[in-house]
Amino acid sequence: MKKIYLVIVFVVLFRPVIPVVEYAINYEYIATVLCVNTDKPELQCNGKCHVAKEMTKSLEKEGKVALEKLSLTFDFQIPPSFDYPLSSHSINILIHTPNKYVNNYYYLLSPFLLDPPIV
Known about the structure:
The chain has about 120 residues and is mostly helical. It has 5 helices and no strands.
């Protein structure tokens, strides 16, 4: 289970670096076919423009995901406060408790409970 978490963390952390690794592996193909600046050899681009575009896409995708998460996290509306007018009539509530409940209640404050033990 720890290995699975390690792989997931590794993929998430190094996802922006994947275009650079792909460039190192497919250097010849990217430099000859995918490079935009093949007509300008004085720039010595060798496919770095393609890697820059891929990294930009990767970072934009991460930024959009982060913004989507942010918008989902804070996408709520606060309802307006409702001010209900209070009536001028007061309500008196009378609670009747039978005496048997009141009489059964007593405090357990005994002085010997608070004394420290005698050694």
